[in-house]
Amino acid sequence: MSIVSNLTGTHWPRAIVLTWLKDHVPPPRLQHIVRVEVMASTLAQKHDLDPKKAAQAGLMHDLAKYFQPEQLLQWAKTHQLPLDPVDIANPHLLHAPVSALVAQAEFGICDPEILAAIRDHTLGQPQMSLLSCVVFLADSLEPGRGNRPELNEAREISQQDLYHGVAIACDLTLQHLLKTQQLIHPRMVLTRNWAWLQIQS
């Protein structure tokens, strides 16, 4: 049975989530979400983690992707999320933790590991779980991101070592942000350093 068929057979309300997503994100984003779902499940299987949890987190990682900046900030303030000045300057970064809140509010998700994987898929988090690493990598490296040599190398590394994959993915993101002169969230730097330290320890 294919991975997609396995995902369809899970007990959580995948069809309900997909229906909600169709009303809240454009088709290209929905295609990205499904690719993240599948890659997260595949990567979880590769590393002996729970593929159903990985798939669920992957499917819901971008629930708040198209919320307006003021809406993201309001959710963050209402739920007393920590706010860095970079979050306030670029509220889009809040879509990850707000997506976790939406998963709870809309779909009753209460598994802390799934919620953490949704929350940390953009910036990561030092000491994040292996499941969170899987979703972080699936979002960064799913096939729709392209076939540049550095992406393919990161995909291969992720098959062997999740921490190394996270370290490389962070470096690629940071290189892009520096090249385009964008703000860098301090948590991305902390995640990058943590991942490299895991490899060296």
Structure description:
70% of the residues lie in helices and 0% in strands. With 201 residues, it is an all-alpha fold. The protein has a single domain (3-200), classed as Hypothetical protein af1432 (Orthogonal Bundle). Helix 3 packs across helix 9.
User: In percent terms, what proportion of residues is strand?
Assistant: under 5%
Tally of contiguous helical segments: 12
User: CATH topology, what is it called?
Assistant: Hypothetical protein af1432
The level 1 CATH classification is Mainly Alpha
Furnish the topology, listing elements before pairings.
Blueprint: H1 3-8, H2 14-24, H3 27-46, H4 51-60, H5 69-78, H6 85-89, H7 95-107, H8 112-119, H9 130-141, H10 149-160, H11 162-179, H12 186-200
Question: Descriptors for this entry?
Answer:
201 residues; Hypothetical protein af1432; 12 helices; disordered N terminus
Short description:
The protein has 12 helices and no strands.
